[in-house]
Design goal:
The protein is mainly beta. 0% of the residues lie in helices and 52% in strands. It is built from no helices and 9 strands. It has a 5-stranded mixed β-sheet, with no helix packed on it. Strands 1-3-7-5 form a 4-stranded antiparallel β-sheet, with no helix packed on it. The chain is elongated, with a radius of gyration of 22 Å.
Length: 132
Amino acid sequence: MITGTAGYSAIQAERSVDVTVADDENAYLAVENTNDSIENGSTRGVLRVTNQFGQEVDLAVEDVETTGSVEYESENGANDEVTLATSETAEINASCAGTNDGTLEVMLIIESDDNELSVRTMQVVDISCNPT
């Protein structure tokens, strides 16, 4: 008995998709670079995160990496997690412990209390560390 197979190696199909891309300030999670220059020994907000989801969310910062004299400080003065109401913002803070320019790289993790919303975004900020 001999049987044939109906195998194939490729398929091409046409489909249409509508995609809308929002600017960062209009996104559900708005992330804005607020400062790229810090004086030696100073702490400043370098990223502003705004909750525009329409529900309360928790913001955590993880996987922090720095280069040069840049050091991660906190988010709104808290080291673990902050809760953001709708339209509320949080500042991601950094400092310079010298005058070597560097970067702050952080993973922002956003989650809702009901666990139906989860967002992870990596953000990198180039920072100039200036003498006082």
